[in-house]
Design a protein that fits this description.
2 copies of one chain form a homodimer. By secondary structure, chain A is mostly helical. Helix content of chain A is 59%, strand content 0%. Chain A binds a DNA duplex (16 and 16 nucleotides) through helix 4.
Chain lengths: 239, 239
DNA sequence: CCTACCGATCGGTAGG
DNA sequence: CCTACCGATCGGTAGG
């Protein structure tokens, strides 16, 4: 009924296609061969599902993705994802939560390294921006885009939980932006500036193409140039 | 075929509501009463459907919206939208196309008015930005957000057609941005600056709340302050 | 985690 | 534009 996704494993167990229905020569044991006793891999399959879901949710949207698609992507049958996740929505939430936790972690690491240099607001902002581009556009980064573009499909409770994580992530930016604003290098209301800046960055998901065009470094440079006022020339000091 | 901006025409033509369903005492002739001969209102119902679809597509997404939802929103039965549009996808395209045509028109009008003043790159950009916020966030503006966030559900052909309209809309920005870049008031690669700026604006759809917070004017001011370098103080002229 | 299945929903259509 | 439907698909479940 479903021999879909003849990915690698067990590919070609028979002439395949419809053959299954016509004649099943010898009985093969139900289910897949069990691992030898005591050997379990629960966590792994769960992770596989999350990764596959992230990729599919990003490409086709939550509503445009079938739990069967996800199952097929990891070589499972249609009902099996529900052994790991109690609902499709739970899978979506898992994708987003992992995306946020990874992003928060990576941001903290990047910032820690940068803080060893002499304090420089602009340099710190560049680190944050570069890191954000990495999280959005870097290799294997489908999680945050899903988080950004599919939250409509969350329950209210899930939305609240994720909003907290998002708050943690964005909180780091606040002192950096405030310092630059106080130094006159970011103009306008800081609150609106923050929203506009995040928009500029997050929208890159829509047009960025890793295979051509700018690199993430160039993107970060362009963003810095656009948002942060250039320092007045040194000659200004002369009164 | 495209009577855009059908704001309030024909509002409240009947008491409407559910009454129809509850009890139909005497046989009423199939279908709704025909207009007297020669009087047709094809276009109107079509417009109603497009408006309802725009609202629902924006709120629930294309995949999250049912053709039955749309039918119900305009008081039709489930199969009737297909009398006006041959498919759900055709309705989506109609929403987006109307959105783009309206946006292009409004942009041209705004710009024409602004060009009567002495040429000033910054002033022109402010007009474009303010107008764009209007198109995105103004009253009755669900069309462009749908266009921005649901294009995944288009066919390749539809995508190409809309890309052309989008090109027309964005082409207007190019000389304005180039002029400001040449004047040193927009920094970084112009091409990237344009993408980042559009991102900052388009993302406002995600967070803007008309009932509280900033006005569209304040938004436009904030964007200008963020993107356009302030002119150096006049004292600079002294060598 | 598979097998086998269900109930609900959905886009779309025939015919008037 | 309504009535009455259909075929396909989908999320999810029982039971092993």
């Amino acid at each position: 009924m479903n021999p879909l996704a003849a990915r690698s494993r067990f590919a070609l167990q028979v002439p395949v296609t419809v053959a299954t229905k016509c004649a099943a020569p010898e009985k093969r044991p139900r289910g897949r061969p069990r691992k030898t006793a005591g050997e379990r891999d629960d966590g792994n399959r769960r992770v596989e599902l999350i990764n596959a879901a992230a990729k599919l949710f990003r490409k086709n949207g939550f509503d445009g993705t079938t739990t069967r698609d996800i199952a097929a992507a990891v070589g499972m049958h249609s009902g099996s994802p529900f052994y790991h996740f109690k609902s499709k929505g739970a899978l979506l939430y898992a994708v987003m939560e992992q995306g946020m936790r990874t992003a928060i972690l990576q941001q903290a690491l990047g910032l820690r390294a940068a803080e060893k240099s002499p304090p420089d607001g602009a340099a710190l902002l560049r680190v944050l921006i570069r890191n954000h581009f990495g999280v959005l556009l870097g290799p294997g980064s489908d999680f945050i885009p899903v988080m950004l573009y599919e939250s409509r499909s969350l329950t209210a409770r899930q939305r609240t939980l994720l909003a907290k994580l998002r708050g943690d992530y964005e909180a780091v930016w606040e002192p950096v932006l405030n310092a630059l604003h106080n130094a006159g290098r970011i103009k306008g209301q800081v609150k609106l500036a923050r929203l506009l800046i995040f928009g500029a960055l997050n929208w890159s998901v829509q047009w960025f193409d890793a295979k051509k065009g700018a690199s993430l470094e160039e993107l970060a440079d362009a963003a810095m140039a656009l948002f942060v006022q250039t320092l007045p020339p040194a000659t200004l000091k002369t009164p």
